[in-house]
Design goal:
This protein is mainly alpha-helical. It has 3 domains: 121 residues, 3-Layer(aba) Sandwich (GIY-YIG endonuclease); 28 residues, no CATH class; 59 residues. It is 49% helix and 11% strand. It has 11 helices and 3 strands; from the N terminus they run E-E-H-E-H-H-H-H-H-H-H-H-H-H. A 3-stranded antiparallel β-sheet has the order 2-1-3. Strand 1 and strand 2 form a beta hairpin. Helix 10 crosses helix 11.
Length: 238
């Protein structure tokens, strides 16, 4: 078995794809399995593509790491590239097992993969994926399998820990600059935080929905929240 890194080139416009492939025949007619390269082959025909073998390895792990080295962000951003994401994704078993004692290296690889996908979405390369996901969700909503505003899809219940992670990584997560601006605005406002209704008054000042304000202040200004903010349980009835 050969583990090869290859480059497939469209002879019409010089667009290319770099990939990994395991085979018993180095000279087989395999050209690539990425979504865009497959679509291009279907459009232009196999005869308009040529494949160059760049490297041959004895094991999958070395090949995957070489693909990760070659298919970097520069390749992803190249308009001539059919590649959608950083190479080497299939090598996670090797990375997690052999390199498990090198967390910095593992983190670097995970970050590069994550940033690559974010860039692909931002550039519009994955618009077809977003459209397909939207259509899928609409179908699930229509069939009653996915409820709007809920945390779960039918048959799949999320744990409290999972819900918290999702919440922490959504709209309530602020950058350091946003946190600094928030603290400045809150401390310099003329709002009486001991009186019920402060949430509605503060919301437009920090450009947040009222239902998010209480959580945000409690999370990023816990001491201020404890000392100043109105608490329902402390209200005097009578």
């Amino acid at each position: 078995m050969y583990h090869v890194i290859y480059k497939t080139v469209n002879v019409i416009d010089q667009s290319y794809y770099i990939g990994y492939h395991s085979t018993n025949d180095i000279n087989d007619d395999y050209l690539g399995s990425g979504k865009i390269i497959k679509a291009a082959i279907k459009k232009y025909g196999k005869d308009n593509f040529v494949k160059e073998i760049l490297f041959v390895f004895d094991n999958k792990e070395q090949a995957m790491l070489k693909e990760h080295e070659l298919v970097d962000q520069k390749v992803i951003d190249d308009n001539k590239s059919y590649n959608l994401k950083i190479g080497g994704e299939g090598g996670w078993d090797y990375i997690n097992n052999v390199l498990k004692d090198d967390p910095e290296y593992r983190k670097e690889i995970y970050d590069r993969m994550s940033n690559s996908l974010k860039e692909s979405y931002a550039s519009g390369k994955l618009d077809h994926v977003k459209k397909a996901t939207t259509e899928r969700n609409k179908k699930l909503w229509a069939e009653g399998k996915l409820k709007r505003g809920t945390w779960s899809i039918k048959g799949c219940i999320l744990t409290e820990e999972h819900k918290k992670k999702i919440s922490d990584n959504n709209g309530n997560k602020l950058s350091q600059k946003e946190i600094d601006d928030l603290i400045y605005i809150v401390k310099n406002s003329k709002i009486d935080f001991s009186v019920h209704g402060w949430v509605g008054k503060l919301a437009p000042l920090i450009s947040r929905k009222p239902q998010k304000v209480n959580y945000i202040i409690k999370k990023y200004m816990p001491d201020f929240y404890q000392q100043k903010c109105f608490k329902r349980e402390n209200r005097v009835i009578g």
